[in-house]
Amino acid sequence: MTKTMRLLASASVLAATAVAASPAFAAGTTAGTTVVNSVTLDYKIGGIDQNQVTATDSFKVDRKVNLTVAEVGTSTTTVTPGQTGAVTAFSVSNASNAPLDFALGATQPSGGTAPHTGTDNYNVSNLKVYADTNSNGSYDPGTDQEATYLDQVAADTSRTVFVVADVPLGRATGDVAVVKLSATASEATAAGSLGATVTQSTGANTAEVDTVFADADTNGNVARDGIHFAEDDYTIKAAALTATKTSRVISDPFNGTTDPKMIPGAVVEYCIAVANGANSATASGINISDEVPVQTTYDAAFGIKLNGTVSGGVCSGGSSGGSYASGIVSGSLSDIAAGEARTLIFRVSVN
Fold it and tell me: Which domains does the chain have, with CATH numbers?
């Protein structure tokens, strides 16, 4: 084995040891690292060893700028009309071989196919971006801080970012709002402030540290522009409540309960049936207020029956509750899940 070969073999062993001792990073050798390569030449004249001849070359590793923004999870964020502080999460990854800052921005595309299902057809409001300040992967109001950029993101590391928004009232189940988080590669020049936007080097390779953009064109992104984005969506799941009010005569002073008519003195039963549509969110806090007609008198003996059922268009059952005051019948119903109905029943007599 020649001396040169021995040197190469030794270098190979050292390299193998270094790989075994350190994790493999996608970013590669750190930008700005000086790579030195030396060659040694041995020779003889007339069988006599001569002084070695050596030569050395070195170059600096250039900067590869690569970033990825990705939705955390694989499903839409389900929200209800009027919900505040609805959260969706993204990861921002630095696959570069140097630390970077990342300028952040959240926007709302108008229309188009949503990432998960359906078509964008409404906008959320109060759209804000928060950094995962305590790095626990969950949005913590009051702890996680609103952010316009990520500071000093090391090579081969990721940060979690939350987009938080308020959902408007009046939206129906299946409505979708798309939100987009973008990150722009910026110089990590000083901690505590956003550096200038990174620019790609042009022309031939130089002796200094050049910059090459390496970000991909996945999911609609433009390749090699130093910017990356991802989208997520807020899908509405609303309650679809309908109220149906019916009346039926129970008795009259002359016919009793046999084919009674709605004449003065007749007892009339009102039923307010509240139903929730299929595949809807459970409705809660349901309060009913009904003004008794002035041509009638409230039947205090019967009272108010709550949470009854409807069968064949006829209301029945329920437990006593509610209140009557100043000509108003009031009552609260229990939660109504999708496909269910509950009732409020009261009676009056015709004046």
Answer: 3-61 (no CATH), 64-236 (2.60.40.10), 241-350 (2.60.40)
Type of residue found at 284: S
pLDDT in tens, 48-86: 999 999 999 999 999 999 999 999 999 999 999 999 999
Which residues are CB-contacts of 277 (< 8 A; sequence separation ≥ 6)?
173, 239, 240, 241, 242, 338, 339
pLDDT digits (tens, 9 = 90+) for 38-49: 999 999 999 999
Please state, in angstroms and rounded to a whole number, the distance separating the CA atoms of residues 72 and 6. 50
> Looking at the chain, how many residues does it have?
351
Alpha carbons within 13 angstroms on the beta-carbon side of residue 242 total: 9
Q: What is the pLDDT of residue 14?
A: 34
- Count of CB atoms within 10 A of residue 251's CB? 17
**How much is the pLDDT for 4?**
37
Within 13 Å, how many C-alpha atoms sit on residue 107's CB side? 9
